[in-house]
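Progress note, sequence design subtask.
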């Protein structure tokens, strides 16, 4: 469902197919992480305007266990599961802005933005 909503909203603001694919891929990975590691959560989708630029902002929030070492978690190849360890770092490379905040025992909040460069 997240993938569909993000693709629809990204198309509404005129993101290219390549940029749509990038934001949808990042959203899919972060949504999966929210479910798998954060034990569920929510995503907020917001369309942005900054002068002549438009963008899409996604905020993923959970109340899971949090991330003990964010720097380590952002390292390519690091995983606490069975994946390739490219989820967070890969998602960061697919967007223009990436912010992660996490507190042990309280949860994680990841904000990403993809701007329309057209």
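Output:
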């Amino acid at each position: 469902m997240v993938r569909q909503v993000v693709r629809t909203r990204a198309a509404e603001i005129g993101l290219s197919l390549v940029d749509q694919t990038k934001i949808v891929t990042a959203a899919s990975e972060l949504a999966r992480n929210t479910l798998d590691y954060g034990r569920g959560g929510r995503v907020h989708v917001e369309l942005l305007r900054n002068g002549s630029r438009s963008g899409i902002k996604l905020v993923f929030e959970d109340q899971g266990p949090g991330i003990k070492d964010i720097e380590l978690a952002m390292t390519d190849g690091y995983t606490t599961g069975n994946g390739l360890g490219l989820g967070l770092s890969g998602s960061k490379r697919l967007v223009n802005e990436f912010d992660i905040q996490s507190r042990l025992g309280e949860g994680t909040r990841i904000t990403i933005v993809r701007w329309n460069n057209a």
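Residues 2-115 form a domain with the Heat Shock Protein 90 fold (CATH 3.30.565.10). Work on this subtask will continue into the next period as scheduled.
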